[in-house]
Amino acid sequence: MRHSNLATLLAGTVLASASLMLAVSAQPLPPTSPPQLAPALVPAHVVDLLTAEGMAAFSAQWKHIEAKIVEGPALQGAMPGYKTSYDISPHAGAKGFDDSSWTTLEAKQLADRRGGGKVSFLWYRTNLTMPAKIGAFDTANAKAVLTAYVDDYAEIWVNGEMPRRAGITSPATIQGFNIPNRVVIADAVKAGDKVEIAIFGINGPISVAPPNFVFFRQASVEFYK
Fold first, then answer.
1. DSSP letter at 54?
2. Thinking of the domain 32-224, which architecture would CATH place it in?
3. 32: which residues sit within 8 A by CB, 6+ positions away?
């Protein structure tokens, strides 16, 4: 009887441990801000971030680095036979990420073909300071939208997060093959507001490993009133 009870206790302990491991490995990611759809109207004003003048309007500059695929151990709870996980480095979408050692790009250089081709990932970062006026345009209380058109895909981080919800259109996530991301970066602009932008550019289709490179077709801020 004692051996039977001990066996039952051990079995229960193993099952409880396995359940805990699965629960730990299945933890959901922390929620982000809900995604917003950008207006479909004609903007009141547009600033081209592929020009020096456009970047100067926000007292901003572009920084760039190639992202790498790195190997690690499989996650806890992975099925037998899976020994390895894959990650990207760096995770440069984080708020306040230190990009001081990255290459500085002139705005026009966003159109240059970058990366080594095939399965390729690139980070682009900038910090925008909202001005009171851009030329004669008064930015106060305008809705600001970032349009990032990366060949072929992109993910957009704004102030340290990529707004998204499962099953809901999330403009900061991949939108499709050569389809631009249009992400609301400010609901009501105030002069002096800071907006930290990180763009993860992806060469694709990924399973094709195409013999080409990553570049911007468009990068702009649109204002709506």
1. H
2. Sandwich (2.60)
3. 161, 162, 163, 164
Per-residue pLDDT reduced to its tens digit, 111-170 = 999 999 999 999 999 999 999 999 999 999 999 999 999 999 999 999 999 999 999 999
Closest CA to 146 of 156, 159, 138: 156
Q: Which two tokens stand for residue 165?
A: 């919800």
Residue ranges covered by each domain of the chain: 32-224
- The secondary structure element, H or E, covering residue 187 is none
Let me know if 169 is exposed, middle or buried by CB neighbors in 10 A (0-12, 13-18, 19+). exposed
Q: Which two tokens stand for residue 151?
A: 């060949």
List of E strands, the chain: 45-48, 62-73, 84-89, 103-105, 121-129, 133-134, 137-138, 143-151, 153-158, 181-186, 194-202, 215-224
Cα end-to-end distance, the chain, whole Å = 79
Enclosing H/E stretch for 100: none
Instruction: Characterise 45 by phi-psi region: left (phi > 0), alpha (psi -120 to 50), beta (else).
Output: beta
